[in-house]
Each structure stands twice: as C-alpha cells, then as structure tokens.
Request: fold
Amino acid sequence: MATLTPNLAVKAPRTRDTGGGDPPSYGGGGNGSDHGSNGASDYGERLRRARLGLVVGLTAVVMLFVGFTSALLVRKGLPTLDQQTNTYSRDWVPINLPWALLVVNTVVLLASSGTMELARRDIARQRILAPVRSIPGVSLGDDKGFPWLGSTVVLGLGFLVGQFLVWRALQEHRFFVNTGPSSSFAYLLLATHAVHLAGGVIALVYAASTSLLHKPVEARGIVIDVAAWYWHFMAFLWIYILAILLIAR
Amino acid sequence: MATSEIVHAHAAPQGFIRKYIFSLDHKVIGIQYFLLALSAVWVGMVLSLLMRIHMIWPQANLPIFGHIQPETYLSILTMHGTIMVFFVLTTAPQGGFGNYFLPIQIGAPDMAFPVLNMLSFWTTFVAFMIMLAAFFVNGGAPLHGWTGYPPLSAMQSTGPGEGLGADLWITSIAIFCAASLMGALNFITTTLDLRAKGMSMMRMPLTVWSWFITAILGLLAFGVLLSAGILLLMDRNLGTSFYVPLVVVNGQIMGHKGGSPLLWQHLFWFFGHPEVYIAIVPGMGVTSQLLSTFSRKPIFGYKAMVYAMLSIGFLGFMVWGHHMFMSGMNPWSAFAFSILTMCIGVPSAIKTFNWLGTIWHGKVRFYTPMLFAVGFVSLFVSGGLSGPFLAQPTLDIPLHDTAFVVGHFHLIMGVAAIFGIFAATYYWVPKMFGRMMNETLGKIHFWFTFVGTYTIFMPMHYLGMAGQPRRYSQFTEVAYLQHLIPLNRFITYAAIITVSAQVVFVINLFWSMFKGPRASDNPWEATTLEWNTTTPPPHDNFGGHTPVVHNGPYEYGVPGAARDYVMQTDPAVSTSPAH
Reply:
C-alpha cells in the first residue's frame, strides 16, 4: 500500500488518541480497506453521521422557534397607546382556537409518528435480514410488510389538511393574520410548523420512491431513519407550539 | 500502516458543468465562494468610494452615477454595509477558505454532506443576486441601513427604497440565513465526524477550531435572524404589528399599532453581535496559523487559544444589548451588558498576548502572508481598544451616532477580518492553484493597504469625538463641522488611494493563478495536512488515502528533529498532543 510519506517509518498511533476515531470511509463498503469490509461498520458510520447532521440541523430549527417564542413573550407584554382614551393598555386579545379540530390533528400527527417509528424499525430489520435474504433458496416469508411509510405520508398530509381547516376556522371567527398580535403569532407558528412538516413529507416521498426504484436497502435505511427522527421532532415541536398557544393565548 | 484506503463518496466529475459549476467538490465550492466574495467586495468598495466622494463634494456630478441624492446616499450606505457583512466577511473566510481547507486539514476526503454544500453555495449566490436586484427596482435599494431598524424598514411608504427594494433586501437576507445554516451544519458535522485517525480535537489546527466555532455561532445566530426577518416581512406585507407601533407617516396614520421597534433590535442584535465574531474568528485562526508557521515556533498557548476563542464565542451571545444603549433601556440592563462586554477584553487580551508570545524570539520570515497576519494583530489591537470605550453606556451615548463608531467597527471587524482574508489568500493560493503569488506586488499591496487603513479609520475616531454624526448624507453646510472638512477630504483621498491599491492585489491574484512560478507541495515548510498532499490537491484530497496524524499542528523548532518543522503525519515527536 502506498504511503503519503514513504521515506518515514511511521509509528503506530498511541492508544490514547481516540479523538479521531476510525478514518472515514465512504459508500461502497470500504472495498479493500482494513476495516469495514463487511459494510456493516461503514453503514453504522454513515448512519451516525447523518443523525449528527440532523441534530445540528434541528438546532437551527430550535433557534428559529426560540426567536419566535421570545418575540411572542415580549410582544404579549407590551403596552399599546389607545388613541381614544390616550391611555396605555394591552392589545393582546385571546383568540378562539378550534380546540376540537386541534385535538384531532394532534392525534393524527402522533399516530403518524407511531407509523413512522414502525417504518423505521421495519427498514432496520430489512437491512439486517438483507444478507440472509440474498442467499439463494432462503425464504423469510412474504416480503411485503404493512406500508408504514405510505401510512405516515397519508397521515402527514391529513395533518396538513387539518391545519388548513384550523386556519379556515380562525377566519370564520374573524381572526385574520393582522387582526391582532395573538392571531398573528398563531398563524405564524402554525404556518412555520406546517412548512417544516411539508419538508418531512417530501423527504418521506423521496424515501418511498427510492424503495420503488429498488435502491439498496442501506441507501433507503439512512433516509428513512433520519426522516423518522425529524418526524418525531416535528411531533414534539407541535406539542410545544400547542402548549404555547394554550398558555400564551 | 501509515494510511488506509478510502473510497470517495463521489467519483471525480467529468464535463465542465459538473466539474466547475454544480460541483460537489468542497475545493471547487470553496473557490466559488471566494470568487463570489471577491465580486461582492468590489461592489462594496465602489459604494464606499461613492459615499466618501459625496461627503466632501455633495454637489459633484459623477460619471455613470450622476448626482447622488440624499436618499441615494442612504441606499448606498445600506447596501455597502449589507454586502460587506454578509457577502464578504461571512462568505470569504468561512465559505471560501473554510470550505476548501477544513476537510483537508482534518484529513477528510470531502465535507460530510457534499450535496448540501453545493446547495449552500448556490443559495448564497441566489441571495446575492436578489440583493443586487434591489438596486434596479422602482425606488431603488432600501434606506434603512444594514441593521434594518423598524419602523423605517417595516412599512412600504416610509421612503423611496422601502418598497420592493426593501422586500428584496429582506428576502435576500432570509435566503442567506438558510444558506449559512446549511453551511454551518456541514462544517460542524465534518469537524466532529470526519477527522482522520489521530486527529484529536486538541490536535486540530487553530484554523479548524476557528471555522468550527464560527459554524456554531452561525448555527445559533442565523436562525434567530431568520425569525426576525420573517416577522419583518409579515409587518411589511401582511399588515401585522410585531415591530410597528401606532405611527404617522407623511401625515397619514398607518394601520399598525402596539408593536415595538425594540423587539427587532433585540432579535437583530442577538444575531448581529455573534455575526461580528463570525467575521473575525476565522481571521484569528488564520493569524495564529501564520504567526506560528512564519516565526518557526509553536503557537504560544495552544489550549489557551482554543479556550479564548470558545469564550469569545460564548460571551458573544450575551452582549447584544451594548448595541442598544441608546434605546432607553433600563440602566441596570445596560450595566449588565456593559460588564459582560468588557469581559470579552479578557480572552481578546489572551489571544493578543499569545500572538506576541508566538513571534517573540522567532526566526520570523516576513513573506506577504506573514505581513498581513501581523497587520491583523495590529488592527485587532487598535480597533479593539476603542471597544471598552463604547462598552460603557456613559461614553457610548455621546459617541454612538458619530464617526467614532464607524472608525471602531471598520478597524476591528471590517479591515481586521479583511486582513485575515488577505493573509489566507497569500498563504493558500499556492496550494489552491499551484502557483506562487508575486512577493513584490504582495508587499506593495500590503503597505498601501496597511497604511491606507490607518489613515482612513484612525481620524474617524477624532471626527466622532469632535461631534461628526454618522449616516448623514451631507454636512458640508453645517457650521460647527466646517473645521472638520479638511480632515474628511484627507480621508477621502486616502480611501481613493487605498482602493486603487487593491487593483494590485487583483492583478497579482489572477496573474499568479495562471502565470506565477509553480508552487511545491509545501512552499512555506508548514506542518498541517494540506501541505502533505500534492499541489493542487487531487479530487479526494489525498490520492486515495487518508493520512494518520501523530503530532500537534505547530511542531516547529522541535529539539533533536532533523529539520525545523515536524509535519502532523511524521512520527510522533512530542508526548503531549499539543502545547
């Protein structure tokens, strides 16, 4: 094997140097390398990297909502000048949220989180069984499990439709985006969450299409795993938004 | 075994478009960012010259630009600040050099997510185009300054540039936020997960630390700016009242009520202050790297440097209120922000002390990159020293809206960061393009820029103390400022000369890129991993192998070693991973 500094005899790294971990290896199972030749550790590394990327990305989403939340708390406490009486008052009018609809939406979203988790476990199981399945003559029963991924997409779209109905209900109660600060924030938080969830739906549709295109189970596995954790985070974020709307209505 | 083979995530691309336009290679993307910033800095510099010329000859009829109206002056001011802060100071050090050298310096074949990296660049490009488009729409570019304070920025009818121009401005910033977040995500994941064997965190070059810390700052800051920008867009276009109280514009009561302009200031400066460090921290990293390399000495206090950068980043999130002493905030808040701000002097002083300690008794080689690194330290000190003045509310209140602040922040975050970029350019262009830059032209460029910078910005401190307001388009008719006009004229002449000297840089850069003498693999005799591969590096950085690291990043002048530097991949020479 060629070395970068062939004129030097390189000592083995000391055992305490664990900071760097193993050298990174990219797709294809580290062909010919001294590690990861079975593809398993390589998959593990790629999965870990993707999850790390997700956590970092979600931090940015958290900061976006930290910004919104602090704006809401500040805005809620602000006095405003009343022109008629020339006195200061609070202009925060509690809004009538369609709670029944919101509860239904929450249940739908939590259910979708559940189906997503089942899809994630399903793909993990498939990945582990893939080498066994590839042995000629070995049958592990029916390949077609329940379409958990498809169910998640349907439930996710159902949630988005439900959120649209919430908007319609708000409009029927004469709460528009510029009616007052409380309705402005309600529309803002619902819309921002919906946009993020729609991104998740797109990721799931992509993952499902890789399944239809018969991509290797490893490639699909990472997309579905990361999409699943993102999806769970969206459910958590929704509970948070609901709590904010409930407490600081 | 010294190396282990790796299989790259993507094969070397074929065809012009995949190779140079929509490339996934972090090196090409780094160069794209660098060229974007180079274009942006010329736009920004021309705008600054227009301002300087307008200041002393307000009636001048300029070729192409014609006679500059007061509102045009404010547009120029806004766009100069915005373009320089976002598309130069944020883009070049991090997106440009960080993208190119972070993976190589940690021994990785590429960024963790190459597609995201490409998206990040092209999103930045789109943001820049939208920003420039604001010049050409009806009403022109916005007037509200780079800080975009409402209510001026929050309504369409407040001025000629506040219509479509301001919408484009906010849209551009929001897109830029998304691009920066994608970049930060990549930088953090790459640093944490793709380090080569033996590259422990405490063996990373200080440049890598600086890009890593900058990425964390960006990750936490840009999300908040995005949230603030979304609220501003809603106020402007959907009739909400987040930032706008009951206001009368041109005798007309606007539909808004109850909002607070201070809310924007809080959100904006929560981003804005870390943004200052996003601009300057990569410069600190490059300066540390260069002072050590060209002094042939280990960096003085490696760990202290790392912790100082971390604490500067940490404190950077707790001092935003010092931009708002004029807002009528509670004096107790101002007191807290003031104390916290002055605390930043401690890690800054540690850094300066360590830089001086690094070159002390070193065998200093004054090549052009070293000159710019020393220039960075000089500007960091002289720009930084006016910081504690402005950190105190009692001093800030009289000085805040004067040229004193202009002098302060241009020295510290403007030109110091630019010196970091120049130092990095002269240092790394040989590796990036395989050609050395011309030393004579480089030194001419350095001295004109260094002296020019001081002659432009030092007198501004005096102007500020003499009471010259900032942001005003015209003051030549004001009686009490008459005696300052000669000094202002001097600054304008200095600015014209200094900007002209930058032509030397551009000629040197592009001439050297194609015609300069060929660079060896390690022309500076440096130790970090980018000097351990061919010049320029192959597509996967190390030609099918990944290096194994045995040493800290700054092993210069090691007793008993065969030569005065020990590369990171050489056999271990030191029992401690770092100094």
Q: What stands out?
A: Confidence is low (pLDDT under 50) at residues 1-7 of chain B. The first strand of chain B starts at residue 4 and ends at 5. The domain at 1-259 of chain B is CATH 1.20.210.10 (Cytochrome C Oxidase; Chain A).
